[in-house]
Amino acid sequence: MAITPFSKIQLIPQEEKLEITKHRSELFIGIPKETSYQERRICLTPDAVNSLVSHGHRVMIETGAGMSASYSDKEYSDAGAEMTADTKKVLSCPMILKVEPLTLAEIELINPETIVLSAIQLKTRRKEYFELLTKKKITALAFEYIKDEDGSYPAVKSLSEIAGTASILIASELMINNQFGKGLLFGNITGVPPTEVVILGAGTVGEFAAKSALGLGANVKVFDNSITKLRRLQNNLNQRIFTSTIQPKALLKALRRCDVAIGAMRGKERCPVVVTETMVELMKKGSVVVDVSIDTGGCFETSEVTTHEKPTFIHHDVIHYCVPNIPSRYSKTASLSISNIITPFLLQIADDGGIERAIRCDKGLKNGVYLYHGILTNKAIGDWFNLLYSDINLIVF
Mean pLDDT across the stretch 35-57? Predict the structure, then answer.
């Protein structure tokens, strides 16, 4: 077979493939005042609003929405936000931002095809919530479900960091309680034995609780049934501490000696109860329990939900702090954290040309979608409420 010389081969020109220019969209965001009990955070700080406005977007905020987070209406107005006392006007914006999920009354006021970005807090939702959103063909995204480039959940991680650090600060306050506290300083003072802290759970909450406790000079013991999590925690702390799987005898021994016990366990539906009432009864008088896991039921058998107004109760001579949504107590810090996470996503949505194109380009953002034009796209929600759902990847690709 004869081989054709390279010089005689005719090269046929190919069509040039040009990149399609993205058409940037302008966002019109509404931020209503939070009405949920004990919720004091706001989604965007004045600096974030200023950044969005300088990029050509509009932000409408209900008057007083930032007061609980120590942000005045004037700060938002100076940042370029449109302020109004009319809740209906804010809820008529094409995109709504909220920390807490919309109430049923608020859903009634929003327009069809609105984009809603908020927390979802699945355990507190009712079936009617999703049915009403579906009826209005809403596209809804949940903070908790949005993923970062590394596959982590930035909103969940950030708020867990706050909750973990706060749990130690709260415990240190309760230990000096004049009525029942032990009068102990949460620190390692020369010649004084260090405060003993037991942490249940080696996730993000447990890690940041351990960092704070160690920073104050406490002696820390961490229990978790995942050796991988315990090893990761040891590496992240850069020092060796006592770690153990949850074994009743070892746990009871640690609890009987400790001054503070932090509950930071997690479960798929309800967190496991790992500390029985008998174990609590054997703890030292005046010791402190901070059950951060109370959001999902609590990991102490004696835990009962309390409020920010009346945060503690005493059971078996042990002070219990069982307030859900601890980050809301530090409303400004939590608001800054949420704002820093959301703002880049909002700018990305605009640069991509709107939510439709953005969720096609970003898998992490797509993971946050649980309703797409009224179609339920989240399997966990569908299974929990016995609702029909469709895979988002079969609708948007």
Answer: 93
